[in-house]
């Protein structure tokens, strides 16, 4: 058992990295600051800054508010609107898939580590759990990488968005920059891909008393 446990330290780190990566994926998905828009019309968007996320758009407004007070207004994307860029809807779907894939990867890793630390020297079972976990980690990482890269490209090229009139948003900003969600997503990608690589690197020790079952 000691030999078996000693070969799985990297996979224990895999579980830790995968857990943090999965949490950051979730945080990135729920964060509204994917794109930070700077606008010149401050009649409604009082601060001159609006945050464009993958689920909603938010901005600070002093309109109809008592002097000295401010309020954050948010408008959610409802259903499919052809005016909303494809990368926003792609991010919604892919990040939900990434959350699910990451959870499956963590589950497979837990099952593999459970067998290792309980001394169940079943080579095929342990190896397959680590390989399955690695596959799901890699898939989750790619599902985060695509929307993060796509939205970052849109930010760097200052692409416009034709929002519905009820959003009170201009179609083009004066300038825009990447919000906090994008670097959080990049870190999540790195951790998830590392977790997948470490899972694939597992080698069952030849000195262990292996159960010869398939």
Quick recap:
This protein has helices at 2-6, 9-30, 86-117, 123-156, 181-200, and strands at residues 35-38, 49-52, 56-61, 71-76, 175-178. It has 214 residues and is an alpha+beta fold. The radius of gyration is 23 Å and the shape is elongated.
Secondary-structure map:
Elements: H1 2-6, H2 9-30, E1 35-38, E2 49-52, E3 56-61, E4 71-76, H3 86-117, H4 123-156, E5 175-178, H5 181-200
Antiparallel strand pairs: 1-2, 1-5, 2-3, 3-4
What does this structure look like?
The chain has helices at residues 2-6, 9-30, 86-117, 123-156, 181-200, and strands spanning 35-38, 49-52, 56-61, 71-76, 175-178. The chain is elongated, with a radius of gyration of 23 Å. A 5-stranded antiparallel beta sheet has the order 4-3-2-1-5. α2 packs antiparallel against α5 (181-200) and α4 packs antiparallel against α5 (181-200). A hairpin with a 3-residue loop joins β2 and β3. The chain has 5 helices and 5 strands; from the N terminus they run ααββββααβα. Mean pLDDT is 84; it is low at 208-214. With 214 residues, it is an alpha+beta fold.
């Amino acid at each position: 058992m000691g030999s078996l446990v000693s070969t799985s330290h990297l996979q224990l780190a895999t579980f830790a990295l995968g857990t943090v990566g999965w949490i950051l994926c979730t945080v990135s998905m729920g964060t509204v600051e994917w794109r930070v828009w700077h606008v010149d019309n401050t009649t409604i968007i009082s601060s001159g800054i609006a945050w464009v996320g993958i689920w909603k758009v938010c901005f600070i407004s002093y309109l109809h508010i008592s002097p000295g007070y401010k309020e954050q207004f948010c408008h959610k994307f409802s259903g499919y609107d052809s005016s909303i860029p494809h990368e926003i809807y792609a991010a919604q779907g892919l990040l939900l898939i990434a959350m699910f894939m990451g959870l499956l990867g963590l589950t497979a890793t837990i099952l593999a580590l459970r067998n290792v630390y309980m001394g169940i020297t079943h080579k095929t079972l342990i190896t397959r759990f680590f390989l399955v976990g690695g596959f799901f980690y890699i898939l989750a990482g790619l599902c985060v990488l695509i929307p993060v890269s796509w939205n970052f490209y849109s930010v760097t090229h200052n692409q416009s968005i034709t929002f519905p009139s009820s959003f009170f948003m201009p179609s083009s900003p004066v300038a825009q920059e990447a919000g906090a969600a994008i670097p959080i997503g990049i870190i999540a990608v790195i951790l998830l891909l590392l977790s997948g690589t470490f899972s694939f690197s597992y080698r069952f020790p030849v000195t262990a008393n292996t159960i010869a079952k398939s």
